[in-house]
Amino acid sequence: MFQLSLVDHIRLSFGSVAASYRAHARAAGRLAARARQTRAMLVTLLGLSACASVVALTGIRPLQIAAAALAGAALVGQAIVHSLDFEARAFAHRACAARLWLLCEKYRALLADVHDGLIDLPETTARRDSLMREVQNVYEHALPADRDAYQIARDALGAGTGTPSDQDIDRLLPASLRQTARVSPT
Predict the structure, then answer these.
(1) pLDDT band, very low/low/confident/very high, at 37 (cuts 50, 70, 90)
(2) Beta carbons of 36 and 28 less than 8 angstroms apart
(3) Residues 181 and 171 sit within 8 Å (Cβ to Cβ)
(4) Residue 59: is its pLDDT beyond 90?
(5) What is the 8-class DSSP label of residue 178?
(6) How far apart are CA 67 and CA 76, in angstroms?
(7) What is the three-class DSSP state of 173?
(8) Which pLDDT score, from 0 to 100, does residue 12 have?
(9) Residue 184 scores a pLDDT above 60
(10) Burial label, 92 (beta-carbon count in 10 A; 0-12, 13-18, 19+)
């Protein structure tokens, strides 16, 4: 039969929150890079358009057509950049990652308190439940509605890469809280 101790449940929850934190931090970085790239592309396009417009004042028909085409491309580029809204999405993922990092620290603190025997079973359960509500709040209110957030949520539910392994969770914890530190070799 399947058995899951309270500490195992807290560790698994911690691992899921930590994996979501890393995924949102990566998404924020990716979107921020895209925002910088699109801004640079748009500034370049606008600069070329301005230069072509100045040169088109000479009255040469092909230069006037090029200036109009560059201005149109700059307008289309601006519309695309505005509709994709990379900066706002990056900010939302960054804010979500920050809140999840705080929750990771709270999970570590709970695991440390349990490990050191500083809290009893009812308090451990209450703190775990409180953390679960905080995680739910982050997922309900802090996530942007984009493809990255959908994929992160899918992975957190086990539809993607699955639940973090004990080794993955142990890498995120100090040596004293690692499961391998508690298991004696046979």
Answers:
(1) very high
(2) no
(3) no
(4) no
(5) -
(6) 14
(7) coil
(8) 87
(9) no
(10) buried
